Automatic annotation (TrEMBL):
PANTHER family: HTH-TYPE TRANSCRIPTIONAL REGULATOR RUTR, HTH-TYPE TRANSCRIPTIONAL REPRESSOR BDCR. It comes from Streptomyces pseudogriseolus (Streptomyces gancidicus). Residues 34-53 bind DNA. Keywords: DNA-binding. This is TetR family transcriptional regulator.
Amino acid sequence: MSRVTRSGKPSEARTRLLGTATRIFYAEGIHSVGVDRIIEEAEVTRATLYRHFKGKEELVLAYLDLADQGIRAQITGAQAADAAPADNVRAVARAITEGIRSPGFRGCAFLNAVAEYPDPDHPVHRAVLAHRQWFLETVTELLGRVGMEPADAAGRHFVMLRDGAMAAGCLFDPELVGETFLHGVESLLTAGGAAPRA
């Protein structure tokens, strides 16, 4: 069970551990990084690590939970209550391209993690699927508001475009990948009857 301070906030040591693990897991992969390195770089003791996390698996799940929270905030923050539905879809797509263009971009944390945890019964694999289900439902709802039918097919199409952009964004020119992704989303919206971008 993770420890929190009396103020209800996570302890500084837990925050440091999770921040260190997040940085290294995302940049280098999960299996290749041992807890000894995380302990060393976070400048904590082994006892401190195990006081906050039962083991590496719980730390990995906390890393994915943090990534999930960040993406949820990104998607929610991109939308405006007074915007046209199609413009909110475009805003979400732009937020995704901003991530692709950011320094140190290494692809989707969830796609990277599931490649290392292929067993569908593993908690990490299940966490990835839960995040992806949320993302699919979210974009499907957004596309449904645009009036696209069937919205579930459009949602799957959007997720496929996003997955391709996330994979390509760390291999090729992120500016070009971002432009291609936005063009694909615009084509999806136009095919569904949305007014072209102004």
